[in-house]
Amino acid sequence: MKVKIVYPEVTRQQRIWMNLRIYCKWIFLFASTICAAVNISVGGKAWSVIAIWSMWIVWSQILSTDMVEYNRLSQTVKLILRACVLLAMIDLFLAPGWSVNVIALVCTAAVILVGVLFFSDFEKQKQNMFPMLIFCVLCFTGSVIGLIARRGRAVVWPLAVLAVCSVFLLVLCAAFLGNRFGEEIRKRFSVK
Fold this sequence. Notes:
Layout: H1 12-42, H2 47-63, H3 72-93, H4 99-120, H5 122-125, H6 130-149, H7 157-177, H8 180-188
Helix pairs in contact: 1-2, 2-3, 3-4, 4-6, 4-7, 6-7
């Protein structure tokens, strides 16, 4: 009996990429361990947490990308959320007191970027709009919570701008999709 191979053969370029990923994985694990060990032995602020999270961002965005939902909207939203977590960790572990306004400004720029990416290829990207919608809802919710928590402080305009931009993008999506907006939302939550 002769077995017919139906899978495509691995090319030389794919083999090089797989080897690079394997080497990078071990280098990242070694570097993460060394960072944590040095930080624990020296003491002080937890800078190793930021270094390890930064290596995780590089690993997950470049070397080990998603196999499902790999599109420009999803990847941009994931990168922005991971960057915001990095900014919050820097604020928490190294230099406190500045991250709320910076994260609000980064998220505002991200909402604008995601909107441009969405509307630049509307017909193709409307299939991938769900991460963008979740991101807008998260931005709006976070900005409202931030505005309530920081009431009475001098600098709250970045949070207000973020709330307005995220609501504007949601309304713009609903206007462009019309009746299909509800259909697209129902599709995403369908259990059939």
